[in-house]
DNA sequence: GACCTGCTGCGGGCTG
C-alpha cells in the first residue's frame, strides 16, 4: 500500500504541505517543517520516511532505519504509538521502539542485540548510544532522522548536543535525510541552518494557521486594583467564575510557589472542587505529575494549576480553556500556551490573561498588539560552548574512537561550531587528554588517550562508565527529596528552604499542609499536618525577563495613550492610572525616555523607565550608578523591574545636569564598566558549576547515592579557584564569563537598548510623590530587605502616604 | 484594602 492509498482509505485529505515534505524527502532533501500541533505534521514526516523505505527495497531489511528525536520522555510513548498505527499496513516487517531513561533493562538488552526499524528517543539517549563502541555498526542502516519540537531544543545546549550527534550521523551517512519540526515561528531560516549545519534544505510551512483569541479578565474595580504585586489573588473570584462553566481549564502561573498558593486559595474558596482540581509543576514527583496528566487526558479534572511544566507534551488534551495568571513574559510562550486549548482542526485557540497588578493590564493590551503584528521572539543557538564539546569528545572516544583531524572537521559541520578555531579545538582535545595545565597529575582527568595509530580512545572502563552516567547538558537544581515518613514521594524542594526549618515546622507543598519530621540522607521526611499558617517553599528558578518584542509592544501602547487613544477593554481599564502617570510626569514611549526624581526623607529617588526587561535594567542601573559614582563618590541602592529601575541616594544629586553634561548611557567601555559595576566574578563562579558538570569535571555520584549540592558546589568552586590561580587561560573560565554576560546580563540586548536610548529624548520630571510607574519599584526595593509581613505594613503605609498627598 | 516571584527539560554502570 502507498501512503496516498492509506490516507484515501480513511477519507482523509492529504494537505499540500504533507505532499511537499514527502516529495522532498523522496528526492533525498532535508528540511524544516513549520506547522502547529495537531495539524498532521507527525504523519507528514513519518510517511516521508516510509515512502523512502518503500522506494528503496534494496536496503537492508533489519536494523535502525529511522531515528525520531523528541525533547521529552512524555512525548516518546505517544509518538511511538502514532507511528505504529499506519505501519502494520504499509511496512509489516518494520518495528517501532523507544529508548529513554525509562526504558527497562530487558528492553535495552533487546535493543543491544538489534535496534527496531524506527526508534523514538531523546538527544541524551542518542548520545549514550553513540558512546557504545559498536555505534557505527548499529547505525549502519540509518536513512532518515526526524527532530520533533526543534524550536524547544535549538536555543539551548541540548540542541547543541543534538547538532553534534547529527554531525556524527551525517559523517557516517552523507545522504542522511534530516527533517525538523517546529511549532513556533520566529526565524525559520536560522532554525533550519542550525539543524542542517548550514547545508541546503527546504522550509515547508504547514497550511493551517489557527485562529487565536486573546482576552483579559478585567478587575471589577480597576481604579482600586493593586499597583504592584505578582500573586494576583485579588482576581480569585473572577478566575473561579471563568473556570466554573467549562469542563476543563489549564491555569498557567509563573512560579511554582505561585501555583501552590493559587491551588490552596482556590480550594479554600471552593471546597467542593476537592479532587476536581490539581496541581502540576516541575518539583512535584513524577508519579504525581503522571497521574495529573493521565487524569487530564481522561477528562476527569476540572482545572489544573501549572507552571511551564505543561507547556509541552500531553498532546490531545481535552482542554477547553487556558488562563494565564500574570505576565507571560514572551509572545512565543503566550502562543504556545494558547495552543493548549482548541486542540482540534478548525477550533480556535483561546487564552485569557489574568493581570496581577495594574500595569499588567497594559501588558495584556501589548500582548494583543504583538500577536496581531506577529512580533514573535526568535531563538538563537549557543555559540560554540566548549563544555558541550569536551563532553562530546569523550563520547566519541568511547564510541569507537576518533582521529583528531577528522573529528575537528566533523565538529565544524555542526552549526554552533562552524567558527571553532584550531586553537580552541586543540585546547579542548588537550583538556580531555590530560586535564589541561592544572590537572595533569590526576589520572581521572586523562580521559582520552591516543594509541600508536593516533586513534583517541578512553583507556579505562571505569572512566567510560563514569562518563556515560554524566551525559547530558541539564544541570539539576539544588534540591532535596520530600517524602512521607510512611512512604511515598511528594517531590523536591531546595536544600536551603529545608535547612531554615526545624522539625515540627509546617509548610505547604504539593497542595498539602506538611510537617517536617526529620531530614535524613538528602530526604526530608514529613507527615500531614493541620492548621493554617504555613511557609510555602521558594524555588530559586530562572528569571525570565520580558522579551524585547513584548516590551516594544508596551511602548507602542503607551504611545497610543499619550495621544489619548485607549482602544480595547484593557486600555480602558488602565486609563485612569495612565492619565495619573501623565499628569504627574509623562508616559514613556519609543521616542521619549521618562526620568523622574523625587525627594523624600529617605533621600533622593531616581526613576528611569526604558521598558527593556529586568535583566537589561539591572545592567543599566548598575552601569549608571557606577558611572555617576565615578564623577562624585556616592552610594546607591538599586531596584529594578520589567519596566524600569530606581536609584536611591542618601543625598540629593543633580541628575538632569549630570545627564546633560555626560553621556551616562554611552556604550564605550561597556563590557569593562558592566564587569566592574556588577559582581561579575561571583556570577561567573555560579555559572561555572553548570559548565564543570557538563564538561565532566564534577561527578554527580552514583545513582541512589547522590552527592549533596553543597558538595557539588564546593567541588566546582574548587576547580574555579584552581583554574583561576594556575590556569588562567582555561577556556571554560572564559566561557563562564561569556555566559554570564550574554545570558544573565543579556549584553547584546543591553547594547541594543543603549542605542535605542540614544535616540530617545530625555524628559526629566521632579515629582511630589511616587508615580504609578515608580511605586512598584519602591515596593520592590523595600521587599528585598523585609519579610513579607513587615512588607505589607510598609506597603500600606506607603499607600496611605500617597493618598494623603493626593488629597481627598 | 492593597504581600507574597522567578520555568522547563535528560541521564546512569555492574552483575551469571
From TrEMBL:
Chain ranges of the Helicase C-terminal domain: 235-397
GO molecular function: ligase activity
Alphabetic keyword roster: ATP-binding, Coiled coil, DNA damage, DNA repair, DNA-binding, Helicase, Hydrolase, Isomerase, Ligase, Nucleotide-binding
Domain Helicase ATP-binding: residue ranges: 22-203
PROSITE patterns in UniProt: HELICASE_ATP_BIND_1, HELICASE_CTER
Family matches, as Gene3D superfamilies: P-loop containing nucleotide triphosphate hydrolases
Parts forming coiled coils: 733-760
InterPro entries: ATP-dep_Helicase (IPR052511), DEAD/DEAH_box_helicase_dom (IPR011545), DEXH_lig_assoc (IPR026362), Helicase_ATP-bd (IPR014001), Helicase_C-like (IPR001650), Lhr-like (IPR017170), Lhr-like_DEAD/DEAH_assoc (IPR013701), Lhr_WH_dom (IPR045628)
Similarity annotation: Belongs to the Lhr helicase family. Lhr-Core subfamily.
Protein's UniProt name: Ligase-associated DNA damage response DEXH box helicase
Amino acid at each position: 500500500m502507498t501512503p496516498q492509498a492509506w490516507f484515501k482509505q480513511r477519507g482523509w485529505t492529504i494537505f499540500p504541505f504533507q505532499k511537499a515534505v514527502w516529495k522532498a524527502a523522496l528526492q533525498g532533501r532535508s528540511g524544516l517543517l513549520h506547522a502547529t500541533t495537531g495539524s498532521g505534521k507527525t504523519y507528514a514526516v513519518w510517511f516521508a520516511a516510509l515512502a523512502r523505505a518503500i522506494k528503496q527495497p534494496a536496503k537492508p531489511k533489519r536494523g535502525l532505519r529511522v531515528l525520531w528525536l523528541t525533547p521529552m520522555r512524555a512525548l516518546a510513548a505517544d509518538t511511538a504509538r502514532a507511528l505504529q498505527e499506519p505501519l502494520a499496513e504499509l511496512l509489516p516487517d518494520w518495528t517501532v521502539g523507544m529508548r529513554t531513561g525509562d526504558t527497562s533493562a530487558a528492553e535495552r538488552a533487546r535493543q543491544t542485540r538489534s535496534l527496531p526499524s524506527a526508534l523514538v528517543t531523546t538527544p541524551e539517549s542518542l548520545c549514550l548510544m553513540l558512546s557504545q563502541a559498536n555505534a557505527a555498526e548499529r547505525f549502519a542502516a540509518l536513512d532518515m532522522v526526524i527532530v520533533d519540537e526543534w524550536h524547544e531544543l535549538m536555543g539551548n545546549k541540548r540542541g547543541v548536543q543534538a547538532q553534534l550527534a547529527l554531525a556524527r550521523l551525517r559523517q557516517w551517512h552523507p545522504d542522511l535525510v534530516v527533517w525538523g519540526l517546529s511549532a513556533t515561528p520566529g526565524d525559520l531560516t536560522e532554525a533550519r541552518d542550525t539543524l542542517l549545519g548550514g547545508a541546503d534544505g527546504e522550509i515547508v510551512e504547514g497550511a493551517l494557521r489557527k485562529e487565536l483569541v486573546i482576552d483579559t479578565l478585567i478587575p471589577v474595580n480597576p481604579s482600586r486594583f493593586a499597583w504592584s504585586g505578582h500573586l494576583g489573588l485579588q482576581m480569585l473570584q473572577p478566575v473561579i467564575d471563568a473556570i466554573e462553566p467549562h469542563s476543563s481549564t489549564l491555569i498557567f502561573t509563573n512560579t511554582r510557589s505561585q501555583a501552590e498558593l493559587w491551588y490552596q486559595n482556590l480550594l479554600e474558596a471552593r471546597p467542593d472542587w476537592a479532587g476536581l482540581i490539581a496541581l502540576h509543576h516541575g518539583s512535584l514527583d513524577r508519579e504525581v505529575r503522571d497521574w495529573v496528566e493521565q487524569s487530564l487526558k481522561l477528562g476527569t479534572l476540572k482545572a489544573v494549576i501549572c507552571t511551564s511544566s505543561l507547556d509541552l507534551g500531553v498532546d490531545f488534551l481535552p482542554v477547553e480553556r487556558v488562563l494565564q495568571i500574570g505576565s507571560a513574559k514572551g509572545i512565543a510562550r503566550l502562543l504556545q500556551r494558547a495552543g493548549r486549548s482548541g486542540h482540534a482542526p478548525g477550533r480556535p485557540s483561546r487564552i485569557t490573561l489574568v493581570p496581577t497588578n495594574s500595569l499588567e493590564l497594559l501588558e495584556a493590551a501589548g500582548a494583543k498588539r504583538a500577536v496581531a503584528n506577529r512580533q514573535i521572539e526568535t531563538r538563537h543557538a549557543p555559540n560554540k560552548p566548549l563544555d558541550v564539546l569536551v563532553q562530546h569528545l569523550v563520547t566519541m572516544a568511547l564510541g569507537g574512537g576518533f582521529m583528531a583531524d577528522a573529528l575537528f572537521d566533523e565538529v565544524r559541520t555542526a552549526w554552533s561550531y562552524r567558527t571553532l578555531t584550531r586553537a580552541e579545538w586543540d585546547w579542548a582535545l588537550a583538556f580531555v587528554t590530560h586535564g589541561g595545565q592544572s590537572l595533569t597529575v590526576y589520572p581521572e582527568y586523562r580521559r582520552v588517550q591516543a594509541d600508536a595509530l593516533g586513534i583517541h580512545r578512553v583507556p579505562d572502563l571505569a572512566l567510560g562508565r563514569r562518563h556515560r552516567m554524566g551525559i547530558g547538558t541539564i544541570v539539576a537544581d539544588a534540591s532535596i527529596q520530600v517524602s512521607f515518613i510512611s512512604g511515598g514521594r511528594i517531590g523536591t524542594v531546595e536544600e536551603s528552604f529545608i535547612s531554615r526549618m526545624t522539625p515540627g515546622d509546617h509548610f505547604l507543598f504539593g497542595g498539602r499542609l506538611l510537617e517536617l519530621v526529620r531530614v535524613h540522607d538528602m530526604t526530608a521526611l514529613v507527615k500531614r499536618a493541620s492548621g493554617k499558617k504555613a511557609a510555602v517553599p521558594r524555588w530559586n528558578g530562572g528569571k525570565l525577563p520580558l522579551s524585547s518584542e513584548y516590551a516594544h509592544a508596551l511602548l507602542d501602547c503607551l504611545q497610543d495613550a499619550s495621544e489619548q487613544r485607549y482602544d480595547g477593554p484593557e486600555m480602558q481599564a488602565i486609563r485612569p492610572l495612565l492619565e495619573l502617570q501623565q499628569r504627574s510626569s509623562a508616559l514613556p514611549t519609543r521616542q521619549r525616555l521618562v526620568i523622574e526624581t523625587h525627594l523624600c526623607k529617605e533621600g533622593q529617588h531616581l526613576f528611569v523607565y526604558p521598558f527593556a526587561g529586568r535583566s537589561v535594567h539591572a545592567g543599566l542601573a548598575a552601569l549608571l550608578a557606577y558611572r555617576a559614582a565615578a564623577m562624585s563618590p556616592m552610594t546607591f541602592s538599586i531596584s529594578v523591574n520589567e519596566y524600569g529601575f530606581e536609584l536611591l541616594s542618601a543625598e540629593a544629586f543633580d541628575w538632569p545636569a549630570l545627564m546633560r553634561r555626560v553621556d551616562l548611557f554611552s556604550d564605550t567601555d561597556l563590557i569593562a564598566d558592566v564587569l566592574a559595576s556588577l559582581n561579575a566574578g561571583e556570577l561567573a563562579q555560579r555559572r561555572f558549576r553548570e559548565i564543570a558538570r557538563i564538561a565532566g569535571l564534577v561527578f554527580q555520584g552514583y545513582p541512589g547515592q547522590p552527592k549533596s549540592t553543597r558538595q557539588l558546589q564546593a567541588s566546582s568552586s574548587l576547580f574555579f579557584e584552581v583554574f583561576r590561580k594556575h590556569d588562567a587561560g582555561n577556556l571554560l573560565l572564559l566561557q563562564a564569563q561569556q555566559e554570564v554576560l550574554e545570558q544573565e546580563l543579556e549584553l547584546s540586548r543591553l547594547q541594543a537598548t543603549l542605542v535605542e536610548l540614544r535616540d530617545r529624548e530625555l524628559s526629566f520630571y521632579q515629582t511630589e510623590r511616587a508615580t504609578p510607574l515608580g511605586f512598584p519599584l519602591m515596593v520592590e526595593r523595600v521587599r528585598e530587605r523585609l519579610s513579607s509581613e513587615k512588607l505589607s505594613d510598609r506597603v500600606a503605609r506607603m499607600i496611605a502616604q500617597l493618598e494623603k498627598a493626593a488629597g481627598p
